[in-house]
């Protein structure tokens, strides 16, 4: 399925500053970038960066003496996903977890799983099947944490993702942060979900239940939002406006997955398929 994404950012700088932005769709086996463009007005120094061991695509921008910047990103992406029968998704013992997933077992800055161990085991420890356990975590967060609609930019969806990650890690399930564009998200914004490592695959979950899991474009992956923030600012620059959109490309059709389907099948949009 082909999706068109767009992100417009306006910044104001009081003095020369540096911005590191993470708005580019990732290049990986699960999503192919068909076309893409980034423009910055007025023209300033900018460079693309992809850290070793990561597929996050950053752009580093130096404002120089410019006081106002308009950053415009546009892309068309061909997205793929796998539906996996929940009944076939079994636990992976820590002794058999792939080395690349080990880091997602540990506490991190925004996911202090070591502090939630007792709560996690009291609430979900009696659920043996790993997929059902994570779905129970999603249900619990959705039912017990208030979501203020339209407040994504204050970190609400991010907080839902962080709590899901922390609870999963406390139960010895590797979990990581997912940030990206989401089709039909209301109001439109960058969205945060989380992924869990089950049966050697990364399955995506959204405790806000606002996003279609089969219509996501991956932008950032990390231990938490500190690894995949939309913007990191070094200096005296501030965001004045942000507009995000994710729409179907011409001729494309979309069929959402309902809750009943998601109880039976997990959605994997992992880039390697393993």
Give the SSE layout:
Blueprint: E1 2-13, E2 18-21, E3 31-41, E4 45-49, E5 58-62, E6 68-79, E7 82-85, H1 117-124, H2 130-144, H3 156-170, E8 175-182, E9 191-198, E10 201-205, E11 216-222, E12 231-234, E13 237-248, H4 259-264, E14 265-268
Antiparallel strand pairs: 1-6, 1-13, 2-5, 2-12, 3-6, 4-5, 7-14, 8-9, 8-11, 9-10
Helix pairs in contact: 2-3
Task: Kindly list the characteristics that best describe this protein.
single chain; 274 residues; alpha+beta; Immunoglobulin-like; C8orf32 fold; 2 domains; four-stranded antiparallel sheet; 14 strands
Description:
The protein has helices spanning 117-124, 130-144, 156-170, 259-264, and strands spanning 2-13, 18-21, 31-41, 45-49, 58-62, 68-79, 82-85, 175-182, 191-198, 201-205, 216-222, 231-234, 237-248, 265-268. The protein has 274 residues and is an alpha+beta fold. It has two domains: 2-79 and 231-248, Immunoglobulin-like (Sandwich), CATH 2.60.40; 82-228 and 253-268, C8orf32 fold. Strands 3-6-1-13 form a four-stranded antiparallel sheet, with no helix packed on it. The protein has a four-stranded antiparallel sheet with strand order 4-5-2-12, with no helix packed on it. A hairpin with an 8-residue loop joins strand 8 and strand 9. Helix 2 runs antiparallel to helix 3. It is globular and about 60 Å long. Residues 151-155 have low confidence and may be disordered.
